[in-house]
Every structure is written in C-alpha cells, then in structure tokens.
Amino acid sequence: MKFKHIVSFLIPILILICSAGCIDDGDVSKFNETIMEESQQIADDYVKKMHEYKDFDGRNLELVETLTARCPYCWSFKYEFDMQSEKDIEVVDRATATILVQEGKVVDVVFSAGMKDEKEPEGILNVSKLLEDPVYNSKVGVYGRVDLLGELFCPCFELASGGERVQVWYGSMVEDNETGMPPVSVEGLENGNWVIVTGKLKTAGDHRSLNDFWASTIEKPVSVDKSSGGREVKVSLEKTLAVTLDSNPTTGFRWNLRENSNEGVLQLVGNEFVIAGAIEPPPPGTGGKEVWIFEARRRGASKISMEYIRLWEKDVEPAETFGLTVLVE
C-alpha cells in the first residue's frame, strides 16, 4: 500500500518535470529569428549561385510561389527560370527550383528541368495577340502604352496595343491559397510610356478578374527617334528597342521596314500608329507617330533601314528615310 501511495505522489512530480523540460526545449527564443524578406533574399542568392543557373546561361528568374512551412522561421520559395539544356546547347529548358529556408539557412532544395511547354507564347506580343488566343498562367512578354496609371482604385494600370487593352497589376497579386507575387516598381513610369511587361495572364479567382495580367517585370525599351538616324545604338541582350517616327497615314504614307540585315540578332516584334496623349483610335486626318518595337535576340549587329512611302506607288523615291545600326551586347 505504501508503494502505491509513493507512486501516486511521484507521478504528478514527474509530469511537471517533463512538462517543464518540453516547454524549455520549445522556447522560440532559442531559434534564430528571421523574417520572410531576409529568407527570400537568402533563397534568391542561393538560386543565382546554383551550378545550373551560373553555368548554363540561367535567365528570366522568377519567384512564382512563397509558402510558410510548418517549422519556426521557415519559408519555401519556388522559382522558375530558363536555362541552356545540359543535353543540347541549342535547346532552352525551363527549370524549377524550390528552396526551403529555415532560421536563415537553406536546408532543402528540389530542382527539376525540362523542355519549355510548346504551348507557351513565343516572343513578345501585343495585347490583341495576347487576348486572341489566351494561354493562362504562362510567362509571356507584352508591349503597349501605359494608360490610367494612378487613376484606378488598385495597384494597376491599363496597357494598350493592337486596338485592345489589358489591366496590368503590379501589386496585390494574391492567389486563392493566399500566396502572392512580390510587387513591381512603377517608379518613373508615366501614362503614355511604351513598356514591355513580362508576367502571366490570369483566370478568374477570389482576388482577381478574368484576363487580369500579373506583372513580374515592367521595363521601358531603349528609345530612338529621327534624330538618331545614321548612328549606332547599343541594346542589351533580350531587351527591346523602340523606334518612333512622325507619320500621317491619312496622306497614304506609312513607314516601311526595307531592311533588317540580321533578323537572328534583332527581331521585329510589331508596330503601332499612335497620337501623342491619345490611346483610343484617332479621328480621320490626324497625324501622329509610328512606333516600331524590336527585340534583341542574340549578340551581334544588325542594320535597319526604313522608308516613308505609299506602298502602291512604284519607282518613286521615298519621302523620307531612316537608318540605324543596332549593337546587341
């Protein structure tokens, strides 16, 4: 009987001792406290130093998902980027790297790579082409003019080209599972600017409407006009060039691209007629400007030559000409 009383007396004491030890081991003050932004920077740096990214021409790095893991100060960051195929240098693979950061250290990495989805849109599109045959949640570049920036009740603006518009979001991009994309700076951006927006066309969801376009980058192209004729212009690889020239289609004259000496280096993306300060189609008889967008696809040089002509007139000297040498670095 005494033994039973002793055991009954000791059990609560042992439970208290055990509980105290468990609480002490779980004291969060013993963990290395880090915030999500610091952890993301650690993950960013890790991916950029990966063998696959450094040695196989990694580019177009994009953070596509951020999740809070079930451990103290843990976040999982999923990245996608393009890389040269390890099997064939002429092939571009799409790589995915998921980085788990715990207490400021990378503790797990999952990597995979494969050929890019053939259904993904190729090259840079205008808004009309983007919406004509929409492909959702695939990375694509779209060019156009900025409108309604700072005038809408959202971190967004409208992008116009090809006679169509799309609403571009640069903040508050939240998926249905509450994960989100980081905001994109619009500092220095003004209505009327021509830009290249890289991002994804979205389906409808809890926090978005059908055909919202979520931006991952917003860039201004290198811009030249008539005053740059006859000069050399440098453009970085995978960036864009915008050539802006006075035009009045009501006279029958339009600019025509007579020569692009190296289309493998410099590729024509598209051209638009616009009127300064206007996004909507202009009234008849109004003059404006033609904007020609080119993409730098490979390192090298290309000469472009343009002429201002009536296309139906034969053996007639052009009213104006324009030429430029583009160096892609």
TrEMBL record:
GO function term, MF aspect, one: cysteine-type endopeptidase inhibitor activity
Keyword Zinc (UniProt): no
Alphabetical UniProt keywords: Protease inhibitor, Thiol protease inhibitor
Pfam families: Inhibitor_I42
Matching InterPro entries: Chagasin-like_sf, Cys_protease_inhibitor_I42, Prot_inh_I42_chagasin
Span of domain Proteinase inhibitor I42 chagasin: 235-326
Protein name: Chagasin family peptidase inhibitor I42
Organism: Candidatus Argoarchaeum ethanivorans
Lineage of source species: Archaea, Methanobacteriati, Methanobacteriota, Stenosarchaea group, Methanomicrobia
